[in-house]
Amino acid sequence: MKHCITRFKTTFLAPAMVFLALFALTPSAIAGGSADITLDQALAVVAAARAKAEQQSTLMDIAIVDAGANLKAFIRMDDAFLGSIDISIKKAKTARLFNMTTGELGALAQPGKPLYNIEFSNGGLITFPGGIPLKNSKGVIIGAIGVSGSSVENDHEVAQAGAAALLK
């Protein structure tokens, strides 16, 4: 019986305690904390990105993820590519998971570079421009935006316009 209790502690309790200790130290674990994008912020980011896309005369899919890389807001402009839905969401997730723009990550993912083939991890990543981490007024990353539907240059410009909405 003593062996069973020791085994239970080692197998289940120790890992659970480590998990709880780590979770308790993360900013998002604090109830009511400001380390996550609000719905109003996400909608403001989407509106600013959409306005930039309309200014460019491009049709975009625009995704916003929260601090945990979960989808928070999404729009598909009329007649935007269906294939860009998945790309925009993955761009946002990629930017949040690695806290850098997808273009920056892409530079590190080229043959011979340190992160070559990283796009095959995490259920698929996107390593070309159009994904940007979103920061609050204190510089804390609270989510990310991903945009797809045009050239990578246009996608990145639309994502930048969305991200800038948080700084106003």
Written overview of the protein:
It is built from five helices and four strands, in the order H-H-E-E-H-H-E-E-H. Helix 2 packs across helix 5 (152-164). The protein is 46% helix and 15% strand. It has two domains: 1-33; 35-167, Beta-Lactamase (2-Layer Sandwich), CATH 3.30.450.150. The protein is α+β, with helices and mostly antiparallel strands and 168 residues long. It has a four-stranded antiparallel beta sheet.
Name the features.
168 residues; alpha+beta; four-stranded antiparallel beta sheet; 4 strands; 15% strand
Tell me briefly what this model is.
Helices cover 46% and strands 15% of the residues. The model is unreliable at 12-32 (pLDDT under 50).
What overall form do the CA principal axes indicate? globular
Separate helix tally: 5
- The domain count comes to 2
The amount of helix comes to 40-55%
Architecture per CATH nomenclature, i.e. the level-2 architecture of the largest domain: 2-Layer Sandwich
What is the terminal-to-terminal distance? 63 Å
Question: Which structural class do you get from the secondary structure elements?
Answer: alpha+beta
Please report which band the strand proportion falls in: under 5%, 5-15%, 15-25%, 25-35%, 35-45% or over 45%.
Answer: 5-15%
- CATH names the topology of the largest domain as Beta-Lactamase
Along the chain, the helix and strand elements come as HHEEHHEEH
Task: Give the topology, please.
Blueprint lengths: L1 H24 L13 H18 L4 E6 L4 E6 L6 H16 L3 H7 L22 E5 L5 E8 L3 H13 L4
Antiparallel strand pairs: 1-2, 1-4, 3-4
Helix pairs in contact: 2-5
